[in-house]
Design a protein that fits this description.
The complex is a heterodimer of chains A (about 300) and B (about 280).
Chain A: E1 2-3, E2 6-7, E3 19-30, E4 35-41, H1 48-54, E5 59-65, H2 76-81, H3 87-106, E6 109-120, E7 125-127, E8 130-134, H4 143-146, H5 156-164, E9 167-170, E10 175-179, H6 182-194, E11 201-204, H7 211-222, E12 229-236, H8 241-254, E13 261-267, H9 270-279, E14 284-285, H10 288-300
Helix pairs in contact in A: 5-7, 7-8, 8-9
Chain B: E1 10-14, H1 19-31, E2 34-39, E3 47-48, E4 51-54, H2 57-64, E5 68-71, H3 78-87, E6 92-95, H4 102-114, E7 118-120, E8 126-129, E9 133-136, E10 145-152, H5 156-167, E11 172-177, H6 188-196, E12 203-209, H7 214-225, E13 229-235, H8 259-268, E14 272-273
Parallel strand pairs in B: 1-2, 1-5, 2-4, 5-6, 6-7, 10-11, 10-12, 12-13, 13-14
Antiparallel strand pairs in B: 3-4, 8-9, 8-11
The chains are: A alpha+beta (about 300), B alpha/beta (about 280).
Chain lengths: ~300, ~280
């Protein structure tokens, strides 16, 4: 049996609940307000984004941390009593919210969500489903959470990229991208699209790029059967262009490369990197726009005039 | 003039005995920055690139009169280093370190605000006022002194734009990489206000990306309070929703944070928004 392309390995069997009402409950970081926000709605069990868009009055928010002092006029219990007027329910809800907040803080979560928080026939609030998002930046502190990572949720490419210290996301196009810096990488993907092409991936080789990182990046890209061209774009700050050139030359020696490679180098040790590649018979572009045009032409043929 | 830093700014480096700290302390000194010392707890009394090392920020500030600190310590110790800088008398913190958890940044943001201490970053390349002072890790040779103020959420994309500007003799008053994390010390709006009030800045370049609402906030501020020309590029049109693209900040959430909404808001505020970064220099 498979669901959305994933083979089912285990089945979770739970008690059937006698549900009388469903609440949405979540604690998350509000990026724009720079606060930690509690969100409660009595229209739980459904897609919260739809409710927020269509019936915003059904969503209640309470700032748990980061509020300017004059904002916190009510205590949490006072605020919760408006969603749970019944004393028994209020006590349970306060307990649940406090535990959710403790979990968020103790384990560096970006989201702790219970949806639905079910009210059962015997007056109990029960977490019928839940979702927790952990902050990657917090995992170093929480070995007990980091070990829960399931390698089966990642493709072989993503795991290899992770091991090599590369940020990699697979996409549906034909132009393989190797770039240093996430902003430059995203800008180049946008440029490819604008020139009529489609990126095969996002790949950021990171700040201090060694030749081995470039080699690993090439190996991952070449496994993609849709790949028609590889486009390397480097602006050397801490990254040295000669290191990148060496990685490209190593890849040419060690890997079976059956697609054209378009390279653009600029910045630290640019001349050295450029001459290493031109000595090996490769042409290096100066401008990103030229490199993108070259790659699009290789991938899809010269544009019809 | 320039904003945030100039030829008189005295700078210390927290984490100066580390690999990155010592390398960039030397590079900043070479550029002409008044680096006056460094801090590594337990290593006071040593010397790194002719600079005295202190055990605490307070000692360093008392003895050198430093106003600015560049933080290079690893993520696990960076929050303490930031707090120590704020309590030790530093008024401008530039945090290069990446990997600080979001919740920690929520707390730090409000703490620094209460203490009236400004922070640029974390997870950023830093600040440079070309020809005067550099506090950060950017390749300084691509910059030229001049009248363009640059604010960006990215690193290498900023270098690309600055290289283009310098090539066309469009020098820069100050360039600031504000960092790619979801919660950062200083956003676009405060810096736009400083550039607007800086006599030596003629025009402003704003480089944004998908995620968050900082570009939208910048647009409403520009509409009411910025008369100088602003040219902008927003990256991430092709980024798939809900995928992390390296920057923790580059996540599309709901309908807000997408490139289209940001471009629309900026254009309505009179900002010239370009499709490709290499068009910026032709529109200034």
């Amino acid at each position: 049996m498979s669901v959305r392309g994933f083979a089912v390995q285990q089945v979770l069997v739970t008690e059937r609940l006698d549900i009388r009402a469903e609440y949405y409950t979540a604690i998350t970081v509000d990026r724009a307000a720079r606060t930690v926000m509690l969100i409660i709605s009595d229209a739980g069990g459904m897609d919260i984004e739809d409710i927020a868009a269509q019936q915003p009055e059904k969503i209640r928010r309470f700032t748990l941390a980061g509020a300017d002092e004059q904002d916190s006029t009510k205590s949490l219990t006072q605020w919760l009593s408006e969603s749970f007027p019944d004393r028994m329910l209020l006590d349970q809800a306060t307990d649940i919210v406090q535990n959710m907040y403790r979990l968020l803080r103790d384990k560096d979560c970006l989201l702790v969500e219970i949806n639905p928080l079910a009210l059962t026939g015997d007056g109990q609030l029960v977490a019928a489903d839940a979702k927790i998002v952990f902050d990657d930046n917090g995992l170093a502190k929480h070995a007990d959470i980091a070990c829960l990572r399931n390698p089966e949720e990642y493709t072989a490419d993503e795991l290899e990229a992770k091991d090599a210290g590369l940020a990699f996301v697979s996409l549906s196009g034909e132009i393989g991208c190797i770039v240093n810096g996430a902003g430059l990488a995203m800008a180049m993907m946008d440029g490819i699209k604008l020139a009529g092409g489609n990126p095969a991936n996002f790949l950021d080789v990171g700040g201090s790029s060694s030749p081995q990182k470039v080699l690993a990046a090439m190996r991952i890209l070449l496994r993609n059967s849709r790949l028609k061209v590889i486009l390397v774009n480097i602006f050397g700050g801490i990254t040295r262009c000669d290191d990148v050139a060496q990685g490209v030359l190593m890849a040419r020696d060690e890997l079976d490369i059956n697609v054209p490679i378009v390279i653009r180098l600029r910045g630290t040790n640019e001349e050295k990197g450029r001459s290493m590649l031109s000595n090996a018979g490769m042409i290096v572009a100066h401008r990103t726009a030229d490199a993108i045009r070259g790659a699009v032409n290789y991938a899809y043929g010269e544009p019809q005039q | 003039m320039s904003i945030l830093i100039n030829e008189r700014t005295k700078v210390i480096v927290q984490g100066i005995t580390g690999r990155d700290g010592s390398f960039h302390a030397e590079a900043m000194l070479k550029y002409g920055t008044k680096v006056v010392g460094g801090v590594t707890p337990g290593k006071g009394g040593r010397t790194v690139c002719t600079l005295p090392v202190f055990d605490t920020v307070k000692e360093a500030v008392d003895q050198t009169g430093a106003q600015c600190s560049a933080i290079f310590v690893p993520a696990a110790f960076a929050p303490d280093a930031i707090r120590e800088a704020a309590d030790g008398g530093i008024s401008l913190i530039v945090c290069i370190t990446d990997g600080i958890p979001v919740l920690t940044m929520v707390d730090l943001y409000h703490e620094l605000k209460r203490k009236h201490v400004r922070m640029i970053g974390p997870n950023c390349p830093g600040i440079i006022s070309p020809g005067k002072c550099k506090v950060g890790i950017m390749p300084d040779f691509i910059h030229k002194p001049g009248g363009i103020g640059v604010i960006s959420r990215s690193g290498t994309l900023t270098y690309e734009v600055v290289y283009d500007l310098s090539g066309k003799n469009l020098g820069q008053s100050t360039c600031i990489g504000i960092g790619g994390d979801p919660i950062i010390g200083t956003g676009f709006v405060d810096l736009l206000e400083m550039f607007e009030n800086d006599d030596d800045t003629d025009a402003i370049v704003l480089i944004g990306e998908i995620g968050g609402e900082d570009e939208e906030k910048a647009a409403s501020f520009i509409k009411t309070s910025v008369r100088k020309k602003v040219v902008s590029f927003i990256s991430g049109r092709t980024a798939p929703p809900e995928k992390r693209m390296g920057h923790a900040g580059a996540i599309i959430s709901g309908r807000k944070g997408g490139v289209e909404a940001k471009v629309k808001a900026l254009r309505q505020a009179g900002v010239v928004v370009v499709d490709r970064p290499d068009q910026i220099r032709d529109l200034l």
